[in-house]
Amino acid sequence: xxxxxxxxxxxxxxxxxxxxxxxxxxxxxxxxxxxxxxxxxxxxxxxxxxxxxxxxxxxxxxxxxxxxxxxxxxxxxxxxxxxxxxxxxxxxxxxxxxxxxxxxxxxxxxxxxxxxxxxxxxxxxxxxxxxxxxxxxxxxxxxxxxxxx
Length: 149
What we know:
This protein is mostly helical and 149 residues long.
C-alpha cells in the first residue's frame, strides 16, 4: 500500500467513524420524535426563507425523491411543514416550514448548541477553522456526480 493509499484510507476511516459518532450523539439530544433528517430539512427550510419543491429538497440532500417524500410526510403529519400544490404547475408541490416547524427547529438547535460548541471548545477553534476548508473540499468532491461508465 502506497503512502497516498494509506493516507486516503485513514482519512475516510476517521470520517466514517466520526460521522457515526456524531449522528449517535446528536440523535440522543434531539427533541423526542425528531430524527436528524427531520432537523436537517427544517433547518434548511428555515434558512432558505422560501418555499421549495420536494425535488429541490431531494437534490439539496442528495436523496431520492421517494426518501424525501417520506421525510416530508412525517414532517407534515407532525405539523412542521405545509405542503401545497404549485399554482403554476399542478404536477408540482411546494413545501414551506410552519410556525410549529420553526419552533421545533429552534428547540432542536437549543439542544444541539451545547454539544456542538462543547466539541469546538474541546478541539480548539483554530483547529476547527483549519479543518473546515478541507472538509468542504471533501464534500465538494463527493457531491459531484460521477461520470457514467
